[in-house]
Amino acid sequence: MTSIRKAGLLATVFAAVPLAGAVAQQKETTGEQANTATVNADQIIVTGTRVQGRTRLDAVSPVDVLGGEALRNQASPELAEALSTVAPSIVFPRPSAVDGTDSIRPATLRGLSPDQTLVLINGVRGHTSALLNVNGSVGRGSAAVDLNTIPTAAIEQVEVLRDGASAQYGSDAIAGVVNLRLREAREGGGATVSYGQYVTTVDAARSSRKERDGETWNVSAWQGFALGAEGFLTITGEYVNRNPTSRGDVDPRVTPQKVRSRFGDPDVEQGTVYVNAAAPVSDTWELYGWGGYQYRDSTSAAFPRVPSNVNNVPEIYPDGFLPLINVRSRDLTLAGGLRGDIGAWRTDLNLSYGRNRLAFRTLNSLNSTYGADSPTRFYDGALIYDQFVAGLDTAREFDITNGTVTVAAGVEYRREGFEIKAGQPESYNRGPLGGNTSLTGGAQGFIGFQPSNEVNKHRDNVSAYLDVEARLADRFTIGAAVRGESYSDFGETATAKLSARYDVTDAFALRGTVSTGFRAPSLQQSYFTSTASVVVTPDILETGTYPATSPVAVALGGKELDPEKSTNVSLGLVYHAGGFELTVDAYHIRIRDQLALSENIQASFSQQVADILAPFGVQAARFFINGITTETTGVDIVARYRHATPAAGTFDFTLAANFNDIDVKKVPTSTATLDPAPTLFARNRILTLEKGTPRSKIVGSIDWTLDALGVTLRATHYGNVLQPGSTEASDHWTGRKTVVDLEARYRFDERVTLAVGADNLFDTYPRAYPADLNTSGVTAFPFYSPFGFNGRYLYARLGVTW
């Protein structure tokens, strides 16, 4: 970015956070003193229940409550990574060399697809990213919410419901729900500046070197203001500047051998503003609202082109070139509502709008079919997704003879839109040299969207739910929920949930749930289109990704996509006494009609396929198909003990674990017109579902505070993860690895705190790819690794509150 753009970005962020005179205000008590991953046992939750005053240990379903300060007391400014560090059921891989997914990285819950977890902001459905992950990464085929559009400085706490909840919240809540609750402050404020970089030794198959890279600056500030006698306005701003990392090996294809790739984290510069507010308008009614905007400029690298590459133009790049993929994301969230009482009914009417626009550019590249006249920078087009939601929720408590019944009901309307916009002609065209069959048309590294790829599609749906929860004799809780939805594209669906809890004693309880769930196919999955032109002498044909309802896909047997459906069963226990608490929850999730992106169906497979594709001028096509069935079985264990001593300080011990096993039970082998069909889902796609996330993740942490001093020591053990190849010989395991993080904090007075720390203190890496599986030297480490492959990160953070 130019210095002018940087200055403008900073000004946009921090113009929204007035600091003048703020030092004179009192410090707001909003949980800033809580450093541990979880909050107190009596913390009130709003996720998974519509009963007022329910605490996390009283919940019928398992809910993790993660304090905002625990998320901020880490090295990474990314919310998704911070969540994965403290929540054992969440994994946040750091893929590289997979195009847009490098910049918009999805997280997984219980090893399931990223789009099978519903994300709420203040209890209202968040919007997904416009990106569809179409390359070989964990979460391939998904379009998920980008958690990193919300700064951790804006978060009060995060509630993670680890249970199917489609009957309560609608589509996507197959694995569970993540509810981001924004900071609420009438006064006070704070600012934080942090700096860090990787200081590591990279031991790849062919070389070993020391690296100091990935320098990251993070600046954030928040301020609370009073709105009237009881209202609040909280404004948060954040600026992040992160340099790229490079973890590739030397390239053996050229002499002298050197690292030609940039395999690692992208170069990122982003600014974010978030606002949260509420104010009473009468004795019983309150207006509320929040909004956020983020601009992210992210640049990752494609595979390097050596000088001898047929698609290199020596007149432009005599030493070869490294294409760069630039993604500029503009993300907007706006929400508002009115809540209060109509008689005895609590009522909440809310509206929300979200929009994500991703503009793609290929830099330091060329289109070889233009020869020496080729541009070196290309605008590749854009993806746009937007969502409007209107909801009405009501709830009321009824006293009965031996307890209380809470009845909740609501309706929701949602409209979604998805657009693809074409890039400049040189980003996708075959130029004057396009007749050469050995040359690839379009921008090298990322081919632009063509005019024929453009789409502008919308759909809407209406849903209604009824949720009843009864507390009987102060020992037994039973709940039931039903929900019906009607979509304008695929039709109707219904889901239900039954839950129960029995408090055997004041300290020990049993709980369980049975539910059905669904996930509607996203508009991105239904309509994403990206094609390229190839020469099959004497013709120029197309190859690429087509909508399942396009003429090409229908001819090959594609059908209109149906929703994924699930059945969830869980059984658990809760024990708490004194400073000790323990929850154990076992679960079984069966998902049928799961969606996945097929492999390319090529004309060379059979004469039948060739005859089908010939009239369309297509050489190969892929599209989304329903039909995969998976079963996920696992257990979550969370134990915590808090002990305060007069002389030695306060100790907070946490041990949390997730054990998870995914089994693919059924895979489609034919389409409506092809029986047998070519391989629709290759072995590496199936193995990614089964073994692409760790079967075990165990997090142990110790948080110690004594007066002004605080220390957090955390060890996270990850089970073995497979990054599968096309054959068993090319499979690669990450190995079982334990990553240790350490942070020390000192509070100089009531306002100033300095922290220093090391993430991945012992510089742990996944197993390096052997040389025979990394012939270009690029992918030196498996990017399926659940903790990344960047090594040790050292950082310092200075915080001020007022």
Describe this structure in words.
Residues 1-36 have low confidence and may be disordered. Helices cover 7% and strands 49% of the residues. It is mainly beta and 802 residues long. The chain is built from eight helices and 35 strands. The protein has one domain (3-801): Maltoporin, Chain A (Beta Barrel), CATH 2.40.170.20. It has a 22-stranded antiparallel beta barrel.
Give helix % range.
under 10%
What fraction of residues sit in β-strands?
over 45%
Low-confidence parts: 1-36
The geometry reads as globular
Determine the number of helices (DSSP H or I, runs of at least 4 residues). 8
CATH homology group: TonB-dependent receptor, beta-barrel domain
Radius of gyration over all CA atoms, rounded? 26 Å
Would you identify the CATH architecture?
Beta Barrel
- Specify the biggest β-sheet: 22 strands, antiparallel, barrel
In the residues, how many domains can be counted?
1
End-to-end distance: 33 Å
Mean pLDDT: 92
* Total beta-strand segments: 35
For the record, the CATH class is Mainly Beta
The secondary structure category is mainly beta
Q: How is the CATH topology named?
A: Maltoporin, Chain A
